[in-house]
């Protein structure tokens, strides 16, 4: 084994000496050339302009436009002819400078034309970009010069124009160039289209903004950003544009998985309410729940209205029960859409009571606010007798009138001046064991003050005081004014009680009472003395009686007068 290793080492050494000898040569020698100074110098002359252009581009990239013009001066001194690339680099340097240098770009353009170099679309794009801080009135002149020189605008040109006019808030001109761009089968950059869409949305044109966004995404494979859809959603919801809200909401929530803030959600809820879109309203409530925003009455009220406008009254009534179960007390303002629906079409009231009957038969929960709402709709559109019948149906549904129910009905009685129905409702409320507060007694006093004989108003005043309530100043004033109007001497007693209750009696009020008393006295009927006129009249002496007295009782008959 050792002998074999030594033999291999000897063979390797012999091979190394052979390759290291001077006689050995490479099978693939390296490429060799002969230097020709004249031809090398000629090559240097051909690349001088390119070298200057590279230096110009480097200076332009860092915004040193003054260095660019210094290099251009060196080119002129060395006799190097500029190219279109040279001039475009100078224009780019001026355009990229802070704020842009508009006037020098026009001078560069004239210099190009003076030496016979025709500008291309890139040249004009740099000129337009340099005018970004100048008045937009210069742009039509530049575009006209492009047309004169036969230079057709490209996508970059239109993008610059769209961006510029969008920044100026000139939506009409921006749309003009966008239309011209589409006519030439050109597509602008996403940023430019987004600027125009946002401008349309901010100027209160949601339909236009949404249509532009949808058209851009359908014509290209590019998508606009979520901020654009947010602007469109806000603009659409601000004017209750349902189609725009539906499109933007679905795009943001379903496609982008973005949850709008509470303020925007409220705008969307109002749109759902006005357009009868309960599904949209329910989805907004879901998003609010994801944002950990507790539901409140101002969140649920739009959903209630959406159900009403969609003629889904059972869903609307169930919403009131959900509100109370979630710790929110629905108010009459919440349920006003039902009243408005009945006011628009009084025949709907019958259908609403039928819906309640079906819910009762199906053993679905019904909130007392539903009855109060229907009662309000009844007193607003039906005779008071029908409203009284509806008022009495509450017992059949297992409810007793609460103070809010009473106030709705008693207000209708006051408006109609029907004290009998009001007294009946008051007795029913009292028998139900409900608490009789100051306002209930006050409504009864006000009701009886509408009557010609208003003694019951003083009785309710006594009951009110006996229940521990202090009558308010406006109740005393109403009583006193009524007494002064009718010449009732009880106004003095009422004034004393008002003063004892701690209410301030203003001099203006006393002066008003004096005027009312004078008017009441002037309106009293005057008893006239019997008239002595011979004319026939009640309490006077007619002509026949006068002749009887004058002739001593001898009255001529008709026959004697004829003879």
Automatic annotation (TrEMBL):
Which residue range or ranges hold the Pentatricopeptide repeat-containing protein-mitochondrial domain?
A: 262-393
Give the top-rank taxon of the lineage listed in the UniProt record for this protein: Eukaryota
PROSITE patterns, per the entry: PPR
Q: Where are the PPR repeats?
A: 83-119, 154-188
Subunit composition and interactions: Binds to mitochondrial small subunit 15S rRNA.
Describe the family membership recorded for this protein in Swiss-Prot or TrEMBL: Belongs to the CCM1 family.
Report the protein's function. Regulates mitochondrial small subunit maturation by controlling 15S rRNA 5'-end processing. Localizes to the 5' precursor of the 15S rRNA in a position that is subsequently occupied by mS47 in the mature yeast mtSSU. Uses structure and sequence-specific RNA recognition, binding to a single-stranded region of the precursor and specifically recognizing bases -6 to -1. The exchange of Ccm1 for mS47 is coupled to the irreversible removal of precursor rRNA that is accompanied by conformational changes of the mitoribosomal proteins uS5m and mS26.
Name assigned to this protein: Pentatricopeptide repeat-containing protein-mitochondrial domain-containing protein
Q: Which organism is it from?
A: Mycena belliarum
